[in-house]
Amino acid sequence: QVQLVESGGGVVQPGGSLRLSCAASGFTFSNYGMHWVRQAPGKGLEWVSFIRYDENKNYADSVKGRFTISRDNSKNMVYLHMNSLRAEDTAVYYCTKDWQWASDYWGQGTLVTVSS
Amino acid sequence: QSALTQPPSASGSPGQSVTISCTGTSSDVGNYNYVSWYQQHPGKAPKFMIHEVSKRPSGVPDRFSGSKSGNTASLTVSGLQAEDEADYYCSSYAGSHSWVFGGGTKLTVL
After folding, report:
1. Which of A29, A85, B8, B51 could form a disulfide with A76 if both were Cys (CB 3.0 to 4.6 A apart)?
2. Residue A19 and residue B19: Cα distance in Å, rounded?
3. Is the pLDDT score of B49 beyond 80?
4. Where are the beta strands (DSSP E) in chain B?
C-alpha cells in the first residue's frame, strides 16, 4: 500500500534553514508528481510546492525564492529545502502524491516551528 | 494565488443533506475541471474525497458528491452521519503546475 513518511521537522530560528524529507513506497515513484502542502496551527491547508515526474516544478508565491523542491527517484524521496524561514512558515508540512490533479495520498506530516 | 472562498461553517441533522460551496475565479475553478475535496478530522491528515469536480475515489461513500457551475464548486453530503463531522477543504488546479486551497469549512452534525 502507498506510504508517505515525512521527516526533518523541528524548531529553527527566524532566518534559518531546514530540509524536509518524504520517503515514498507502495507505488512507482518515478511516474508521479509530488506536492508539499502545509497547515499552520489552527488554520487551513496551503499548497506549497509541486514537482512533476520530469522535475518540472512550481511554488506558492509565499515561498518562491526561499524554498526548493527536489526529488531522488533512485531513493523514492522528495525533499523540501527551506531557507530564510519566517514565523509565518510555522506549520505541519504534508507530503502528498499527485493523481489526476489532486492529492490522493498524504503523509502524517512533520511540524516545523520557526521561533527564537 | 488567492485562496478559494468557502463558508467557515455548515451544519445539518443526521440523515439530512448539506452542501458546501467553494468559489474561485476564472483562473482556477472556472477554467479547469480539476477541483478536489478533502475531509480532515481533528489531529489527522486530510483524506481524499473527490477529484475532477465529481469523481469519487474507491472507498468513498456515494453520499459524497461534487459539482461545479462557473467559478463555484460544491460538495454535497447526503444522509449525514455523525462521522461526517469534520473540516472540509476544496482545492483547484490553477495552471502552470500550481494549486490553490479553500479556507476550509467546519461541518457540524447536530
Report:
1. A29
2. 40
3. yes
4. 9-12, 18-23, 35-40, 47-50, 64-69, 72-77, 86-93, 99-101, 105-109
